[in-house]
Amino acid sequence: MSKITIPSKAGKTGIGAGVWNLGPGRDPFGGPTRKEIPILKRIPLLAQSGITYVEAHDVEIGPRDVAKTQKLLKQYGLKMGMYTPSFFAAPVFKDGAMTSNDSKVRKLALKNALQAVDVTVELGAEVMVFWNGREGFDFMLAKNGQDSIRRMIEGFNAVGAYALEKYGKKAPRFAMEPKPNEPRANMYLSNVGEVLYLISRLDPAVQPLFGVNPETAHSRMAGLDYVWDVELCLEAGKLFHIHLNSQDTTRYDQDLPFGYTEPLKDLALCVVLQDAKWEGILAFDVKAPRTDAQKDITDILTTSAANLRRLWAKALKVDRKKVAAFRTSGRYTALAGYLAECLY
Ligand code: GCO
Ligand code: MN
After folding, report:
1. Which residue has a Cα nearest atom 13 of ligand 1?
2. Can you give the pLDDT at residue 168?
3. What residues form DSSP beta bridges with 239?
4. How high is the pLDDT of residue 1?
5. Mean of the per-residue pLDDT values of the chain
């Protein structure tokens, strides 16, 4: 399949997806239902699904895999869209990374983060994501919350200073990805507002390097509206990346195909991104479900991409003058009807 592109989009028109999207179908209640595809073998599968920008964690593609990965990316006409240190997989990070109570763990987190900065640059990704993973707590008073935020400020300041010193203008940009819970009962950086607050507390010299990677399902899990979350990032000039998927209400993290559960809201999201002339990558953070067979493992990507293209095209046709008129006259129910007419 050739690359899927998003018509009339500003900046990057190809789609992004993570190698982890094509996992073996593990969940907390049962082992894999599919054969585990070695990480680098997932790269051709992403290409076959029409993806342009690859995303990976350091535990999936490490410093030793850089040369092999570069070769594969070239061979399949792909680019690295995003790279991210895993602050959650290794047992050592069981109680967090930058916010662990153990200073040795915090040091290791910083070391991994700095190494990830180098790999991000080597692989040519412009964005490195920090997902809050196991930063947070399950038991009250297990951590001192004030210390935790100070530790994150210190940690991110150190990452920013390293990137600036080593790469100057070529330093990657860092996008923090909020999530309210799972795997922790309570996660630090649980929502966009918290991330923006943290950024406001960083050293002014590194602040411009830090932004947000909002994920539609994570906002949903927090019971929040993801269109507003994205608007907030845009107004702050901090939408550095985006993870698209869908989610049934506030239950466990589902990583369902984009455009599935709330197509009307996804249409509105496309309108907002179009009006903002957002230039970054539209990336999926979805998960091939446990029930999908090996041969159908990329259905999650092709379904998400088809939905995104359809919704984007419909959003282009939404008459902005009509929207403005509905706003002026306060006819919000009629606006809802108009949007539905654009969709269905
Ligand atoms: C989740 C997160 C992760 C992150 C990924 C990249 O499982 O809740 O969405 O998939 O996006 O670790 O940082
Ligand atoms: Mn994500």
Report:
1. 131
2. 98
3. 212
4. 74
5. 98
Listed in sequence order, the residues at least 6 apart from 33 whose beta carbon sits closer than 8 Å to its beta carbon are 24, 25, 290, 291
19, 39, 100, 304, 336 from 57: Cα distances, Å:
8, 10, 20, 21, 40
Choice from 26, 57, 131 to test ligand 1 binding pocket (greatest atom count within 8 A of CB): 131
Q: Determine the residue type at 24.
A: P
Task: Kindly state if the Cβ of 243 falls inside 6 Å of ligand 1.
Answer: yes
- Nearest atom in ligand 1 to the alpha carbon of residue 130 is 13
Instruction: Judge if the beta carbon of residue 177 lies within 6 A of ligand 1.
Output: yes
Mean pLDDT of 101-124: 98
d(CA 174, CA 212): 8
At which residue do the structure tokens 């700095």 appear?
114
Segment 91-116 mean pLDDT: 98
pTM for the structure as a whole: 0.98
Of 21, 177, 220, 287, the residue with max ligand 1 atoms within 8 A of its CB, to mutate for a pocket test, comes to 177
Which ligand 1 atom is nearest residue 179's CA?
Answer: 8
Rg (CA), the chain: 20
Dig out the tokens for 177 from the structure: 């990805």
Closest CA to 189 of 236, 245, 136: 136
